Amino acid sequence: MKSILSFVVLLFFATFSKAQQSLNKNYKNDSLQIKKLADEVMVNSTAYKNLRMFCKDIGPRLSGSSNALKAVYAGKKMLELSGADTVYLQPCVVPHWVRGANEEGYILINGIKEKIKLTSLGNSEGTNGKLINAEIVEVQKMDDISKINVRGKIVLINIEMNPTYIKTFRAYGESGIGRRAGPSLAAKYGAIAVMVRSLASNEDDHPHTGATVYNDSFPKIPAVAISTQTANKISAVLQSGKIVKGFLKSNCKMMGTANSFNVIGEIRGVKFPEQIITVGGHLDSWDLAEGAHDDGTGVVQSIEIIRSIKAQAIKPLRTIRAVLFMNEENGGGGSKAYLQNAKQKGEQHIFALESDAGGFTPRGFNLDMSSQKEQVVKEWSPLFFPYGVYDFNEKGSGSDVGPLKEIGTALAGLQTDSQRYFDLHHAETDVFEAVSKRELDLGALNMAALVWLVSKYGL
Amino acid sequence: MKSILSFVVLLFFATFSKAQQSLNKNYKNDSLQIKKLADEVMVNSTAYKNLRMFCKDIGPRLSGSSNALKAVYAGKKMLELSGADTVYLQPCVVPHWVRGANEEGYILINGIKEKIKLTSLGNSEGTNGKLINAEIVEVQKMDDISKINVRGKIVLINIEMNPTYIKTFRAYGESGIGRRAGPSLAAKYGAIAVMVRSLASNEDDHPHTGATVYNDSFPKIPAVAISTQTANKISAVLQSGKIVKGFLKSNCKMMGTANSFNVIGEIRGVKFPEQIITVGGHLDSWDLAEGAHDDGTGVVQSIEIIRSIKAQAIKPLRTIRAVLFMNEENGGGGSKAYLQNAKQKGEQHIFALESDAGGFTPRGFNLDMSSQKEQVVKEWSPLFFPYGVYDFNEKGSGSDVGPLKEIGTALAGLQTDSQRYFDLHHAETDVFEAVSKRELDLGALNMAALVWLVSKYGL
Q1: Mutation test of the interface with chain B: which of A40, A415, A438, choosing the one with the most B Cβ atoms within 10 A?
Q2: Which of A13, A374, B33, B74 is the 20 to 30 Å CA partner of A140?
Q3: What is the rounded average pLDDT for all residues in chain B?
């Protein structure tokens, strides 16, 4: 505990003392250019309007769906309007998972049957329309699946997100193991189905979906998420010594693959066009809601980088490419295709930035690059302070740009104020109305500033 | 421009180099105590539940109303439950302004009369139920009121909040002059009424109220706020050269004064009980909504300081006093009474912290104290970084603790991530549902940490 805190603080100061040394270099002119870009975004941004289009005119955009294809063409149009020099579609292959209709669930306590809300986990298999039922047994950590008798039962994997973690992604990563690996582990020990506590930081009645990953060695048993309220209710009854029976019916299944696209719009660099900077978010979303924060916001911010740089008549030295990735949620088909293309063409990808942490006020950039490159980025950090971005000490980037690490690309991810994110992430509440225009635009302007700095100085 | 940016950055580094020097002192033990307090708040906080009570069980709490009195007794009960050593009411006198029923407004363009939403400004006089009408003339800055002919007209004061200011309170302060001083200035030049563009950062159809201040030298003409959408619409028509006629009817009036209370709960210091630390928010709210962010959140955070310190069995060396102020919105009756009492009793108020910037994720503490005391607080700043608070460079505190400056109290205000605040501030959208439990609790825990540090070390 002590040592972790000290380490964080020391890191913090290391950043700042480094940053301090660079104050005299090109700082002043850069700050003026960034102020112009910032004003351009805060006054004229089209990100919010574009987000409304993705959320309200199109809606949910699950990979392989017709809506996902509509989003491809809408994104292409937006990139064209943003003034990108070239806009094109990049083919990719995505899994085609469908939820099907008539998902339903019940619990039976003391002879009383009560309807509950549930949602099949992405990529999971359903019950083929049959209402299956069994006694529910609860585990609060993964290890317990092998320790109690789950054979023939429905396992409630009830791992709460740790409320004491101030950075919510830490709690998501830690508790997420239940959703990702729980169904196959339960199947290994003979369970017939799994109910997972939603990965949600609040207590309400909205189940949150998300991908699960089956291990082919075990049966692919049905797996659903239930709301935190329902999970708490079942848990309380079980802990009082009573029996809870669960019923569930679903029609989801994996339908093989489908063809789809990444959408790419770029501004060609005037001096080093071969050096490519990628900035992106993902077009696809879960099917329960509008995919506003996840990740409509990252998509429209990426488009806004192109628009604002063009509107300011900036001619970047290096190539800036906005990439609207397909299939981040349940397969990564788009990011695989992007990497494969880069390798085939021998492209030089110097930097890639992802926005997939919700369209909330930015706080920093997570970095995944050599310590030498990290120092370069940290030297720029004072330029971001006037716009609320101060934290350059977290590691990481995002799952769409992540694969570019293989070809040596320096990676980054927008770090947001994600306190509200896991209230709505992958749930029906992730809608346009949950996004603040100013917060969205603040993210876009800080991203634009970082991308522009890399286009000027390289990395 | 350049010099301002450099100044901000230099200030930033000044803070951190100071902070760095203090790393070895009592840092480690303090960080452990603060972690315990933080966990206590993040796991067991009652702030959100208490907020629901103020918002949903009571509702709007305008000074002098029966709801405001209900809030007094609810706050007293909450402080008792929080474990405060003593809880008491402190009488104060507040203005009793009432909106009355049947506010309405119209605009007439091209012979077509259209209903518009409007809301009388707090403390303003109405039309006594008569539908008054006149041609609307627009100004976009205060100076223009004296330059155009406003005699017999309705003046639309259409001063937009500057979207390029990253700190939204700066835009609020600057544009707010129209609401505060516009009606009397327009009256001086013969206007019959004023419509003020709502102090809102978004474009929608919710008018935002707020207090105006009449100058007794001029007629007290009716003054209403209209939504940003309506203001934009009228402005566009006027700028096309057409005439817009405005109609408005209202029944608001000042009814003299009423008796009310501040609510105070304190933990007596075990070593220096005479040294008082105040932490507070305000109980009263505008009448249009639930007063969730303004300032139910500040009230329940202040109560949570008491609860969490008691729950952790901390015995503070100095006295910690949560004060739920009455009448921040339209008179400051509560804060005046608090200062007066302090002076009469010769109390020693060493520090006062206010939370009245919405219950959003905290980013820092604004400070208003001697530079020597500022340095003491800044030396503690590394203790707050793990909880998202890093900015100690803004000046200011809040209007309820502000008057304590007269008796030499060091002042501070919670600085929040206020990008969303002026979407809902003083409007019908400031409701419980707009508050995030985690954001609210993060504010409370950082406040608790600062109050605890002052209780330990003095200031």
Answers
A1: A438
A2: B33
A3: 95
Nearest CA in chain A to B422: A438
Instruction: Report the distance separating Cα B124 and Cα B186, nearest Å.
Output: 14
CA distance A13 to A7: 10
ipTM of the complex: 0.94
Which of B6, B382, B436 comes nearest A423 by C-beta? B436
Rounded distance between C-alpha atoms, residue A234 and residue A114, angstroms: 11
Å between A382 CA and nearest CA of chain B: 7
A328 is catalytic: yes
pLDDT tens digits along A334-367? 999 999 999 999 999 999 999 999 999 999 999 9
Which residue among the candidates A138, A290, A328, A379 is catalytic per the annotation? A328
Structure token pair of residue B122: 């707090």
Residue B424: name the closest of B296, B301, B302 by CA: B296
Q: Identify the sign of the CA torsion B119, B121, B126, B127.
A: negative
Looking up tokens 């009980």 gives B273
* Best residue in B361, B389, B441 for a mutation probing chain A (most A CBs within 10 Å): B361
B166 contacts on A by Cβ (under 8 Å)? 38, 386-388, 442
* Nearest alpha carbon to residue A388 among A447, A441, A440, A446: A446
CB atoms within 10 A of CB B310: 18
The domain made up of B18-97+256-457 is a member of CATH 3.40.630.10: yes
CA gap B190, B405 in Å, rounded: 39
Query: In angstroms, rounded to a whole number, what is the distance separating the alpha carbons of residues B154 and A11?
Result: 59
Task: Say which amino acid occupies B457.
Answer: Y
Strand ranges for A99-201 from DSSP E: 104-109, 112-116, 118-120, 132-139, 154-157, 193-197
* Fold of domain A14-97+256-457: Aminopeptidase (3.40.630)
DSSP conformation class of A321: E
How far apart, in whole angstroms, are the C-alpha atoms of residue B102 and residue B68?
A: 22
User: Which residues neighbour B213 within 8 Å (Cβ) at sequence distance 6 or greater?
Assistant: B123, B180, B181, B184
Residue A10 has pLDDT above 80, yes or no: no
Assign residue B48 a region: left if phi > 0, alpha if psi is -120 to 50, beta otherwise?
alpha
- E-assigned strands of B140-242? 154-157, 193-197, 223-226
**Nearest CB neighbour to B437, from listed A42, A202, A361:** A202
Place of tokens 């029923």: B101
Sign of CA dihedral A241, A247, A250, A256: positive
What is the dotted CATH code of the domain comprising A100-251?
3.50.30.30
- Residues in chain B within 8 Å Cβ distance of A388: 166, 363, 417
Q: Which residue of B has its CA nearest to A39?
A: B164
Distance, C-alpha B193 to centroid of its chain: 27
Per-residue model confidence as pLDDT tens for chain B (459 residues) = 334 444 444 444 444 444 444 444 578 899 999 999 999 999 999 999 999 999 999 999 999 999 999 999 999 999 999 999 999 999 999 999 999 999 999 999 999 999 999 999 999 999 999 999 999 999 999 999 999 999 999 999 999 999 999 999 999 999 999 999 999 999 999 999 999 999 999 999 999 999 999 999 999 999 999 999 999 999 999 999 999 999 999 999 999 999 999 999 999 999 999 999 999 999 999 999 999 999 999 999 999 999 999 999 999 999 999 999 999 999 999 999 999 999 999 999 999 999 999 999 999 999 999 999 999 999 999 999 999 999 999 999 999 999 999 999 999 999 999 999 999 999 999 999 999 999 999 999 999 999 999 999 999
Q: Residues A371, A375, A380, A386: is their CA dihedral positive or negative?
A: positive
Ranges of each domain in chain B: 18-97+256-457, 100-251
What span, in angstroms and rounded, lies between the C-alpha atoms of A332 and B283? 50
For chain B, say whether A12 makes contact (Cβ under 8 Å).
Answer: yes
Would you state the pLDDT for residue A14?
Answer: 43
